[in-house]
Amino acid sequence: MRRLLEKNGHRVVHADEGQSGLGMAAAEPPDLILIDLGLPDIDGETIIGILKRIPALAETPIVAVTAWPQETAREMAQAYGCDGLILKPINTRSFTAEVEKYLRR
To answer: With a threshold of 0.90, does the pTM exceed it?
Structure first.
């Protein structure tokens, strides 16, 4: 995902865990947050809830990226307050365009 986005001119900041991602997003608010719902240290629901309470991120779109089954993933993303959902495995031909549609909102 990172390579595809960078290849298409996007700057990507990556965190391997939720806690470090929270710190990075709070320190330098991004234009968009792509979040895996299955992080190793903190569950997606908790991370998204914390992100939504950070004033500097109030307008930042949050898009879940997950390998959960489609219906379960949609329910989770909606319940957690995500602005969108991208299912894994990603389609390498359409992934960048999918991300860009959330950036244009």
So the answer is: yes
